[in-house]
Structures are given as structure tokens and as C-alpha cells.
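Q: Can I see a sequence and its folded structure?
A: Here is a first one.
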Amino acid sequence: MSKFNRFYGMMVIIYDLWSEKMVKKILAGFLILFIVFSCSNNENDFSLVIHGGAGSIYEGRYSAEEEQAFREKLTEALAAGHNILLSGGTSNDCVEAVVRIMEDSPLFNAGKGAVLNAKGNCELDASFMDGSTGKAGAVGAVSIVKNPISLSRKVMEKSKHVFLVGKGAEEFARENKLAIVDNSYFITEENRIELQKMQSEKSSVLNPSGKHEKLFSTVGCVARDKFGNITAGTSTGGMMNKKFGRLGDVPVIGAGTYADNNSCGISATGHGEFFIRNVVAYDISALMRYKGLSLDEAAEFVVNKKLVSQKGAGGIIGIDKDGEIVMKFNTSGMFRGYITQDGLPKVYLYNEK
């Protein structure tokens, strides 16, 4: 029997035994308040939402086998996160574990399978933010760290800084004994072919409505744990054929990633330059904090009005302080999914309503 049921039974017995009207009124009032509080308290609820990128993702594009591969990997990531949260694990541990699963899969533009820069190498970016403390960590242009999301968390927890890039970030990874791999580990033959095609066409930027969805196949996760804490994390290989040490929105706190227990957690995917200019992740949180918008209203305005007006393509996932989930995008599709305490994963690829 739960504590609530035992308490309820005790109160009913006392209520029946006492005859004084005033005592009955007091006890009845107290009992009603206790029931209302217990039913409205959702601190023990938890939720988790993920994305694997937004872009030219539409029905008919992929074979049945390819669709199944995407769905299975997203489901695997959700199941792993659910197990952590169900057992009382933290949102920080959940987000890191979930993003690592997607980084290790060649299906997405993060970690293994990331897109290539103009020189044919992978340069990876990631960020991590804890909504309970406001602390954050980010890394950019790392080329030998197996799981950039883990490095960004280490930056948050083990350094005095927020943002490390390039060789310095890699040195910090070695100091913290994170897995180091050769850059060839990340490279797939599919991406080599795509890069050659782009360079032969003399194209440095892909149209998000075109056929090269990997440009926007960034991965991300937002989780709210049983303690009410929200964490957001995002990881990417950036933009195919990128030059000049380009960094996108993913490692920029407030643009591609943001978390605040008082409002929401956000992870973004899309054309990074637009997400940086509009500080998309923070903008959604700010609209909630300062204008009183719901997460759904704020995300709808930023993604489907503000970004669309500038021809900025992409999407976001988010969870608010009460555990409500949103998945907004202005492209033809977004790899995405969510799971709550019921343990039933919901996975979507296209523009399903």
C-alpha cells in the first residue's frame, strides 16, 4: 500500500470517529487539500525527446530497410534513456547516454558518419547544458574525440570554461581520459561520394529542400528527470564541404542548445547560421519567461514564423518545466521521437500529425 493510501485511510477513520462538526470540517478541508496537492504533483514524472535532424525527409525517399534502420536506432536511443530515468538516474546521465548512441551510428550527421569538410575530414561540434544549475559546456572543431557530447559535458563539469575548440579541446579530452580515435573512424564511403559530388558541382552550401538531408542530420536530446531537472545536449558534424573553420549553432549555447528548469530545455537542428543569428534555443525560453507563452506557442512562433520569414530551415525539440514535449520543424520532415514514464516510444520520420 502506498503512503498516500495509508494516509487517506487513516484520515477517513478519524473523520468517521470524531463527531464534532468543526473537527470534521477541518479534517475534510485538510484531506481535500492533500488530495489536490498529491494529484497535481508531477515531480516523479519524467520525459525524454530526441531528434536526428530535420531536412528533406519525406515518404518515398527511403527504402523500407532504410526507414526501419532509422526507426530502430531512434527507438534504441529512447529505450536507453527511459531505463536511466526510470531507475532514478539524472537528466545529465540520460542525455549523454542517448546522444552517444546516435553519435555511434553512421545514420546521422554526428560522430561516426558525420559530414566532411572541404579537405575531406570530419570536424565535430557538441554542447551540453544543465537546467538546474545553468552550467554549460561546448566543444567545436574536434577531430579525434569519439563522443563529442561526453567531452562537452566534461567541459561543463571539469573546467572553468564553457567553450573549447580544436586542439585545446582535444588536449582536454586526453587529460580526462576520453576515448580518442583516428579521424578515419568517422568517415563513411557514402559521405566521401557526397563530398566529391558537391565539389564537382562547385557547391559549398546545400539547399535544405534538396536531396542531401545529412546537412541537417544533427542529433539532440532533451530530458526531464524524476527530480524535475532538465538537461539538453546536441551533437553534429556541421555542414558538408564547410570551409575556413566554420562553426554552426550546435556548440553555441543559446543558439543550438539551452536548458533552464524554470522554462524549458531545447535542442535544435537546421541551417546553423540562422539559428545563431536568432539565438533560437534561448529565444524560445525567453518568450516563455518574459511573455508567458507556453512552450508550444513559443516554439511555433520562432520556428514557423520567425525562421520561415528569413528562409531559415530546421527544427527543435523541447521539454518544459512541467514535462510537456514539443517537436517543431519547418522542413518536410524531422527524425524524432519521445518517451515518458509509460515506457512506450513514439518515433516519427515525416510530417505525421
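Q: Show me another, different protein.
A: A second, unrelated one:
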Amino acid sequence: MEIFITILILVAIIVIPNIKIVPQAKSYVIERLGSYYTSWGNGLHFKIPFVDRIAKIVSLKETVKDFAPQPVITKDNVTMQIDTVVYYQITDPKLYTYGVDAPVSAIENLTATTLRNIIGELELDQTLTSRDIINGKMRSILDEATDPWGIKVNRVEVKNIIPPRDIQEAMEKQMRAERERREKILQAEGEKKSSILIAEGEKESAILRAEAEKESQIRVAEGEAEAMLKIKEAEAKGIELLREAKADKSVLTLKSYEALAKMADGQATKLIVPANIQDVATFGTTLAEVMKDKK
């Protein structure tokens, strides 16, 4: 009985540690007698004791690696520091395990050399404005180079581009000058628009004043014409009364004179008239004076 229990304990000690559960997004690389045997996916697995061994546990999730800044030289001989971020994923655990020693270090060195080659073909200004081009070229080259290692490079991003201090100062001066130039242009455009609006306002004001003056002169002329018409009517009426008075040889009364003066002046209430006009000659003289004052 004791022997049976001992055997069970030994079996448990040997068997239980060899039962493996592989979690999601993991892969176990298995070697049998020192040679690659298989790769376990997620699920329950059993390895033969003393024969099989887990050579490597590989994560199949996308990995982000931020590499330290690398010194690079542009085509116009400017040295700058550029750091990159690489997004990669293991697609073949076997190639990743046996394809290259220290895969992450290999990717870092490959990224540095690729970056130097690409930047060496660009000038400083192109480097600062061509991040998308640099990212695309690096991703294509790295993906092709890491394919034999079972690695797929999904994306490469240039994180920071740090030019030398003197270059930074020159760029800052250039930016300040550009901002000042734009500010002056905006001010000039504002002053131009303001001057145009002021001139248009003055033009419209002058037109309105001229129209108002024209309208006033028209009204004055119409008033004068209307007054002249009344005077002519009064003169005609006066001549008619003179003819009647001469024909009848009668004496003109104050009532006849007031009627005539009202025609000539429009309102003769303020006129100082004689109490009586004895003859036609006196009447004519008075009428002429009234017409002269009216004009």
C-alpha cells in the first residue's frame, strides 16, 4: 500500500508540472530532444517529461518599442538627434525563436541604420517637413528585413527631431521674422480696407450732400417760379383794372387796391396803403412800387 501511494506521488510530481495551459495571445515553442518540435497555441497541452521542453514563451500581441535618440547627418551636413517608435508583432514564433539572436536589439540596430540611410538623402528642411515619407520608407524597409525573423512591422513613427542648438536659434529667428512679416501684411491690409471704407463713406456723403443741395435748389427755383407766376398774374390783373378804370373814368377805391395788392404780394396785410387813390396815375405808381418790392 505504501508503495502504491509512493508511486502515485511520484507520478503526480512528474505529470502535473507537465500539464500546461497556454493563455490567449501566447505561444509556447516546444523542443523535443533539443530540436524544434511544435508551437502550442492557447488551450490545454501536455509535454512528455524529460523529452519535451518549453524553449520560449512568445507574446503574439502588438508590441510598442521606443528607441533612444540616434545621431544622424543630413545631406547638407547637419547633425541632429532623432528617436523613433516601432510597432511590431510576432507572426511566427518558430522564426522569432530561431531566426535571430536578441530580436529586439536587432530591430533597434536595424532601425538606426535605416534611419541614417534615409536622412542622409534629405536636407535639413526636407527632414523637418517629410515625416510621413520617412515613416513610410522605414516601415517598408524594416518589415521586409524582419520577415525572416517572424516579425511584422506594422508602423514606424519619428517621435522627435532635435537639430543642433545654433540651428534651433536660427529657425526661431526665421519664425519670428516670418510672424512679423505676416503681422505687417495684416496691418497694411487692415489700413487699406479702412481707407477704402472711409473714402467710400466720404463719397456717399458727398453724393448725398450734392443731391440734397440739388433738391434744395430745385425747390427754391420752383418757389421763385411760382412767385413770378403770381406777380405776372397780378400785373395782368392790374393792367386789366387800369384799363377798366380808364374806360369808366371812375375813382379806384381802397377795396380795389387791396384786392390788387393781395394778388401781387400773396398776403398784403402788412402793406401800408393810401386811404384813397384819386386817379389812374397815382394807382399806377403805387402798383409799380408794390411790384418792385415784390421782386
